[in-house]
Amino acid sequence: MSSGNSIQIIPRPSNERGHADHGWLKTFHTFAFAGYRDARHESWGALRVLNEDRVAARTGFGTHSHQQYEIFSYVISGKLEHQDSMGNTEILPRGALQMTSTGTGISHSEKANGAQEVHFCQIWASPRPGQGQGKPAYFTRHFTDEEKKNRFALLVAPDNSTGVSQKREDSGPAPIRSELRMYASLIHPGISLVHAPVGNSQKKKGYIHVIQKSGYNVAQGGGITLRIGSQSDGPQIELREGDGAYLVYEPGAELRVENDSRGVAEVLLFDLE
Q1: Contact 19/54 with Cβ under 8 angstroms?
Q2: What is the pTM assigned to this prediction?
Q3: Which end of the chain is less crowded, N or C, counting CB atoms within 10 A of the terminal residue's CB?
Q4: Helix or strand or coil: residue 234?
Q5: How does residue 2 score in pLDDT terms, banded at 50, 70 and 90?
Q6: Is residue 201 predicted with pLDDT exceeding 90?
Q7: Other C-beta atoms lying within 10 Å of the C-beta of residue 52
Q8: Phi, psi (deg, nearest 5) at residue 14
Q9: pLDDT for 57-83, tens place per residue?
Q10: What are the residue boundaries of the Pirin N-terminal domain, all occurrences included (predicted)?
Q11: Environment class of residue 9 by beta-carbon count within 10 Å: exposed (0-12), middle (13-18) or buried (19+)?
Q12: What's the rounded Cα separation, in Å, for the pair 245 and 10?
């Protein structure tokens, strides 16, 4: 890694993720989760879980409990049906972002609604110190494809950030009790985007994930091809669907993401302390 405004990029190939096919559930685990254990991939900054799930029609996760973590779901296709012990019942379509600050504890269920499989990412974040035992809270946000077209749209941001609404349903990012920001983008062919991370630390962390939209594939990633690297210097790294990468930004560094394939890439990008 060179000095100056550079970025250290550590690829996380899709076929090296944990994965499981339970029939009703086809899932990938970027970080250690359930039966997947790997000391090299336990967490990254506040990011603790990044699961890419496909749940068969009219099936799903029965009622189960969580506490302490900030848990949110990003719906890619189909409809996700959510019910919880706080009395929330919702059907979440593509583009929905559902956030639960589990705090002292909640129970919930998540199922595929209707006759179509639901494809979504479930993400857990560790709360800021002292925030893990707060009162549980629930939020939903909805983002259109147009809002994410060829830009990094901010979907999740720390609850103490300027302009972040604490209303259950509102515009703008969902509030999180964690030092994490999540962006989503639909990057069209031939388009390059540049991202400057937000945060308080001098050397910032990040993570990028290319959603696997071409179907559940446990082999080497296929589909869309992205090239990522520092805006100023350094090598370019190729990512395909399902691939991700750990990022460490030097002060002033900016990430450049280019879609050099023929299809539209759906990407999640995280800023982390």
Answers
A1: no
A2: 0.96
A3: N
A4: coil
A5: very low
A6: no
A7: 26
A8: -60, -40
A9: 999 999 999 999 999 999 999 999 999
A10: 16-124
A11: buried
A12: 5
